[in-house]
Amino acid sequence: QVQLVESGGGLVQAGGSLRLSCAASGRTFGNYAMGWFRQAPGKEREFVAAINWSVGNTYYVDSVKGRFTISRDNAKNTMYLQMNSLKPEDTAVYYCAARAGGQYYAHPGAYNYWGQGTQVTVSS
Question: How far is residue 88 CA from its own chain's centroid?
Fold first, then answer.
């Protein structure tokens, strides 16, 4: 069974940085797409970034381009989200997700597996 465990969230001032990690286990992920989503209070879960596990192609929502970087370490079965120049509007619970097949989708319903989430709070 696939398990995803996020870590690295916390409280940071605007302009600061955080790195989120998502440790994946339960299978090999060579033909998977992995993604980061976030959900702020009272809002729908939104796509942030995704990566094709085998090829390494990356995709971002416009609001984080140039500030966030998604990556993965195949040897550690871990995905990362480096977040720089954080803004108060980045405050949310961040979730990692996985779906079989290399194609990424921005809709959360396309993902089969989810982590428990990690809180990111950016103060102004």
Answer: 18
